[in-house]
Amino acid sequence: MIALEPPIVTVLLCAAAYIMGSVLFALPVSQCWGLPDPRAQGSGNPGATNIYRIGGWQPAVATLALDAAKGWFPVWLAHNSGLSITAQAMVALCAVTGHMIPVFYRFKGGKGVATALGAGLALAPATTLTMTAIWTVVMWRWRISALASLIAVVSGPAISALVEPDTLPLFGLLTLLIVVRHRNNLIRLAQNRESGL
Q1: What DSSP character marks residue 167?
Q2: CB-neighbour burial class of residue 42 (10 A; exposed 0-12, middle 13-18, buried 19+)
Q3: What is the pLDDT of residues 100-114, one digit of tens each?
Q4: Quick one: which of 182, 89, 77, 87 has its CA closest to 127?
Q5: Angle, CA 191 vertex, CA 187 and CA 193 arms, to 5°
Q6: pLDDT tens figures, 30-64
Q7: Considering only CA atoms, which of 134, 116, 130, 125 is closest in space to residue 174?
Q8: CB 21 within 8 A of CB 93
Q9: 92-106 burial, b for 16+ CB within 10 Å, e for fewer?
């Protein structure tokens, strides 16, 4: 058996991460719980927060866990394949991009926060757990998921620079991607129209 060279492994894992990321678990979870399509209800976002609004905490937790797992697993594979931090970060970005522009759903996906959470836990746990703590505090105080996500994500590059500097480029790119995906939320927040839980 011929051993695969690292560049080939990186390409294969990036492709696999994108494919895994393209599975929007909010849709099968909704079907399992007998809920309507989240893309046509509430905010229209196929993510855990919208599932919570539609069906409660149980399907929301299932969606969150599955969306996080599809970010965590390919990065874990990349780590255990001996790939560099840079290559692992590429795999993480591909998973998050898959969720945002999924090939299975005409490239119309979600905002990538849960998938980024899973990928971050695999690659930079200290940074990601700190961001999660920030999300939790903001969410507890204001009960607005978009606000909590944006504040946590924007804090990511500064936190990573302090505790896991090798991952700073990853968190910089994730911040850019997720903030862009939240542009409508930013407009509603500025107009004080963003709904909470």
Answers
A1: G
A2: middle
A3: 999 999 999 999 999
A4: 89
A5: 90
A6: 999 999 999 999 899 999 999 999 999 999 999 99
A7: 116
A8: no
A9: bbbbbbbbbbbeeee
